[in-house]
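Q: Given only this backbone (213 positions), what sequence would you predict?
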């Protein structure tokens, strides 16, 4: 843990603030916003122990605080036992500072678009690229282009946005060209809905065929 880690007990620091920082730190480290209670407890056992050496049942306290954070919509929870960090909209290190400032003034949807676009090197983004390659999954799309180094340019999109309960999981991610990505976020609502249905159909069929599509 670095010197900015949240493992140090600070006088007056509440459990809620502590657990929030812990979750943000975990998500930054793993490069994904989804986590299980077990991942948090196992990955941050040392920090929890340091924060409250005398706690008899820290697991129960953490569970209670996670519930409080759900009530405040700071984290979401799926039936499959997966928590998703909803706030902040952008994690540390995902954006250059100047863009982070810009993003604060924007609506949630735009923030999420920026978050996705600039988080290309994170684990789940790489997993989506590995699965789908560098091809836009919109049927028959021919908008691809290459970067100066000759490698294809591609973006990764959350089909169901995080703030609507989507996850940083492979089932919720598609590779898209810049044009279809912007359409998915900024087009008229019926067009956005159609794109969402198309992408959901592709990931749910599980039979993506780059030649046919
Ligand atoms: Zn997107
Ligand atoms: Zn496309």
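A: Predicted residues:
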């Amino acid at each position: 843990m670095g010197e900015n880690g949240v493992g140090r007990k600070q006088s007056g620091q509440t459990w809620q603030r502590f657990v929030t920082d812990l979750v943000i730190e975990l998500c930054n480290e793993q490069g994904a916003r989804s986590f299980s209670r077990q991942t948090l407890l196992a990955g941050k056992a040392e920090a929890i122990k340091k924060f409250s050496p005398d706690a008899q049942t820290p697991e129960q306290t953490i569970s209670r605080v996670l519930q409080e954070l759900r009530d405040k919509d700071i984290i979401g929870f799926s039936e499959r036992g997966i928590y998703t960090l909803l706030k902040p909209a952008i994690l540390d290190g995902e954006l250059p500072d100047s863009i982070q400032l810009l993003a604060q003034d924007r609506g949630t949807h735009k923030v999420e678009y920026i978050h996705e676009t600039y988080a290309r090197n994170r684990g789940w983004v790489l997993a989506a690229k590995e699965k789908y390659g560098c091809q836009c999954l919109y049927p028959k799309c021919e908008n691809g282009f290459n970067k100066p180094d000759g490698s294809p340019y591609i973006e990764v999109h959350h089909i169901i946005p995080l703030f609507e309960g989507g996850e940083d999981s492979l089932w919720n991610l598609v590779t898209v060209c810049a044009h279809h990505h912007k359409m998915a976020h900024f087009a008229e609502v019926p067009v956005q809905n159609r794109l969402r249905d198309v992408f959901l159909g592709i990931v749910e069929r599980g039979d993506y065929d780059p030649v046919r599509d």
